[in-house]
Amino acid sequence: MRILHTMLRVGNLDRSVAFYTEVLGMKELRRKEYPEGRFTNAFVGYQPESQGAVLELTWNWDQTCYDLGDGYGHVALAVDDVYAACERIRDRGGRISREPGPMKHGSTILAFAEDPDGYKIELLERD
After folding, report:
1. CA atoms within 13 A of residue 25's CA, in its CB half-sphere
2. Rounded to an integer, what is the distance from CA 38 to the centroid of its chain?
3. Which active-site residues does the annotation give?
4. Is 87 helix (H, G, I), strand (E, B) or coil?
5. What predicted TM-score, i.e. pTM, was given to this entire model?
6. Cα-trace Rg, the chain
């Protein structure tokens, strides 16, 4: 077994795809509309689905926002340099919600960004 994807419900599919592709540098891998169900799925990631896990962005046509609840944590991305990654995200219009630095009670360098729907994206510096 392997993880295929994580699904996030989004309020505006084009805005979310733009964030993940233009701000975080992912590629849109595929998109499919389901008119009878009134929703569209778009899959984004850094590599083909056959090679690694991706994100499934689901837009329900009649819903523009969601309550994220308190059970969701974050999606984590490995980066070579957290400080540089945050600058790139800011330069591309992204929002950094936790500035880069060591994690509490540890030495791992990390930061957090937020997507347009408020989902947290953890940026972890590779060792």
Report:
1. 11
2. 23
3. 122
4. helix
5. 0.91
6. 15
58-71: per-residue pLDDT in tens? 999 999 999 988 88
Dig out the tokens for 71 from the structure: 């059970």
Of the candidates 68, 119, 60, the one whose C-alpha atom is nearest the C-alpha of residue 94 is 119
Which tens digits make up the pLDDT trace of 10-57? 999 999 999 999 999 999 999 999 999 999 999 999 999 999 999 999
Residue 101 gets the label, from left (phi > 0), alpha (psi -120 to 50) or beta, of left
How many Å apart are CA 54 and CA 45, to the nearest integer? 5
Instruction: From residue 122, give the alpha-carbon distance in Å to each of 86, 92, 101, 109, 119.
Output: 11, 17, 12, 11, 10
Pairing status of strand 39-45 against strand 54-60: antiparallel
Distance CA 100, CA 125 (A): 10
